[in-house]
Amino acid sequence: MKAICFYFQVHQPYRLRRYRFFDIGKSDHYFDDFANERIMRKVAEKCYLPTNQLMLDLIHQHGDKFKISYSISGTALTQFKEYAPDVLASFQRLADTGCVEFLAETYSHSLSALKSKEEFERQVKTQVTMVEELFGQTPKVFRNTELIYSDEISNMVYEMGYKAMLTEGAKHVLGWRSPNFIYNSATSPKLKLLLKNFTMSDDIAFRFSNRAWEEWPLTTEKYVDWLNQMDDNEEVVNLFMDYETFGEHQWAETGIFDFMRKLPEQVFEKSNFTFKTPSEVAATYQPIAPMNVQYPISWADEERDLTAWLGNEMQDEAFDRLYSLEEMIEKIDNPKLRHDWHLLQTSDHFYYQCTKWFSDGDVHKYFNPYDSPYEAFINYMNVLSDFMTRVEDEIARIESSKSLPTSEKEVVAEIKKLKKRLKELEKMVKIES
Length: 433
Known about the structure:
Layout: E1 2-10, H1 33-62, E2 68-72, H2 74-83, H3 85-96, E3 100-102, H4 117-135, E4 141-143, H5 151-159, E5 164-168, H6 171-174, E6 182-185, E7 192-196, H7 198-205, H8 220-228, E8 236-242, H9 256-270, E9 273-275, H10 278-284, E10 290-291, H11 313-323, H12 326-330, H13 335-344, H14 348-351, H15 361-367, H16 373-401, H17 408-432
């Protein structure tokens, strides 16, 4: 049988407060707690809680025939604990069904894979530990931030022990080939790749409520007909999308919840498809060809590249300045500084600085809390300037403390040494006199 693999991205950043030039050196409170809590509760009520209940109902209705997967960033998990424990509990109920797989990713939904292997691995381990503690699962499949992938990244992921990874079925990489097969990394051949079918994913995630779309309205019957039109040789349709598709990007009034509620039943009655988790897909099907990706791809915008985050001089400057601190950060054992370091790496901060106001302008405006990308850049750099000063001050403190005794025994020993030296000096003075 052919498979449908549902994967949902769940992420919330810690948004920066408006941080002025005159705040530098005066305040290390960078994040807008009020906005973060308000937005989390808003999305919880519109998306997370009703959609989690819907998914739980579908699992109860269809048993282990219906399966889904999530990749939840560490920053989202932390905010669930802080602002929405009811959401966390609802995800835990889904985990308890045995029909839901949780994937590995970076803690802060960062771009660290593009800059630092060490930081990338640290963040993945942190997020994986949270998944283990909260959901009782050890992730087997990896999903990088925004499905960013390259040969180099695949090598790092494989070295961390993962056997499969999700990424975009980008046309400029696949060419004539279909995303509806399993592929493998060209440089780490044992790493299997699940590729997003962006057409059928975006029919739900972006086009569902678009009345100008020639296929509107999208019904479950029509959607399953499209699935049935797949070539007989194709094996899996990977439907990857933001979880906020349900209730937030596509409001309840559009019928998105009714569509999802009816879809599994229609699939079971009118097709030969089944639902599988990413791990099951990777275990069931074999790669048909290696996929060579020298330059990183993502699932963003029409170009499917990195220009949403690193496409102009502002973004590059902010990105390079941030990671120039890595060596100093490694020397620091200051929980507050290290926490801020992680949160400042979140990819959203660079996304807000995007100047692509062309084919994807509406998308960038929708997600951007700033009036302009220049305002986003200035705000971020003000925060980063203060953060850099704090890091440098901490390093200076550490260096100065190395020459000072740190324990009671060392203090006593140091006093004895000084007393001994004092006696020696007294003898010398007596002799000279």
